[in-house]
Design brief:
Helix content: 25-40%
Strand content: 5-15%
Shape: globular
Number of domains: 3
Order of helices and strands: HHEEEEHEEHEHHHHHH
Largest sheet: 3 strands, mixed
Length: 304
């Protein structure tokens, strides 16, 4: 088993590396080295198979997070008797979910936001009275309730007018969670800054009112945002229109920056976002290649 050194130094990208070569010269003289926390093993064909990690580190919206650190912060809050943090994918993307006993979740969230950066504050807070345990008496994390389960339920207050009805529907579409009552907190239901930005865009399109992003944080309930919308100034929604056809287009400042970094780093992959899709059945590589080329030809955004 190799936990760290060889993986951290990029040996996996060296096709000529063999186990004998690694054991013969495992270090770069004079260079600092770090363990990655990854656990891997040599395969008979010389490849290295990734097995997992030595900790519970997860990646949420690009940030590497250790749930144990969040649990420690929760337990440091006066009044919290017990706490646990897990990662759930009920909404289709990984989200942090905290389970607490002893304090109301709104109070816990307010204090946790003073202890941790925003990306480490769990999207969901669930108040617990009884904890599921295994036959040996340990916490059964797999049996913890889903965010929309009974443990997370509050008194539901239905929308009272058209504005609140439309806004509740927008929340459900953005959060992929519902039903949404007028007193529910956007961030308690799994909202975060990216989803708040999406909500602001949908509000502008639905109500023809520009709601500042800060108002979503200041008024995180349907009732509060409905008031902001009613008091807002009309600002008709304008869709972004395609630029006129021309041979070349001026690049944005962000595109200039990416270009400069690409030239300096000799084509590094720091801005690549890899993903893996498993295809079942017989695959025709030529047809797949043609399909991708047609997509790139059809959509200008794929050619920027």
């Amino acid at each position: 088993y190799i936990a760290g050194a060889g993986v951290a130094r990029g040996y996996l990208n060296r096709p000529a590396l063999t186990e004998e070569r690694f054991l013969e010269d495992p270090f770069y003289p004079g260079e600092r080295m770090y363990k990655t926390g990854d656990v891997a093993r040599w395969l008979p064909d010389g490849n290295v198979e990734f097995l997992g990690r030595t900790d519970d580190q997860v990646k949420i919206r690009g940030y590497r997070i250790e749930p144990g650190e969040i649990e420690a912060a929760l337990r440091s809050i006066e009044g919290v008797r017990e706490a646990a943090v897990t990662v759930r994918t009920d909404s289709g993307e990984p989200e942090l979910c905290a389970y607490v006993e002893g304090l109301q979740r709104n109070e816990v969230r307010a204090q946790l936001e003073r202890l941790l950066p925003g990306y480490m504050v769990p999207a969901y807070m669930i108040e617990m009275e009884q904890w599921p345990v295994t036959p040996s008496g340990k916490l059964d994390r797999n049996a913890l309730p889903a965010p929309d389960g009974a443990a997370d339920a509050e008194t539901y207050t239905a929308p009272r007018n058209v504005t609140e009805m439309k806004l509740s529907q927008l929340w459900e579409d953005v959060l992929k969670n519902g039903p949404v009552g007028i007193h529910d907190n956007f961030f308690d239901l799994g909202g975060h800054s990216l989803k708040a930005t999406a909500l602001v865009s949908r509000i502008a399109k639905e109500f023809d009112v520009q709601v500042p992003l800060k108002d979503v944080f200041a008024h995180p309930t349907v009732e509060g945002l409905a008031t902001v919308i009613r008091e807002g100034t009309d600002s008709p929604y304008e869709a972004i229109k395609p630029a006129e056809k021309q041979e070349i287009y001026p690049v944005s400042s962000a595109q200039k920056r990416i270009y400069v970094l690409q030239q300096l780093e000799d084509g590094g992959t720091g801005y690549n976002m890899p993903a893996v899709l498993e295809l079942e059945g017989k695959l025709n590589p030529e047809r797949m290649d043609r399909a991708f080329k047609e997509l790139i030809k059809r959509h200008e955004s794929l050619r920027t």
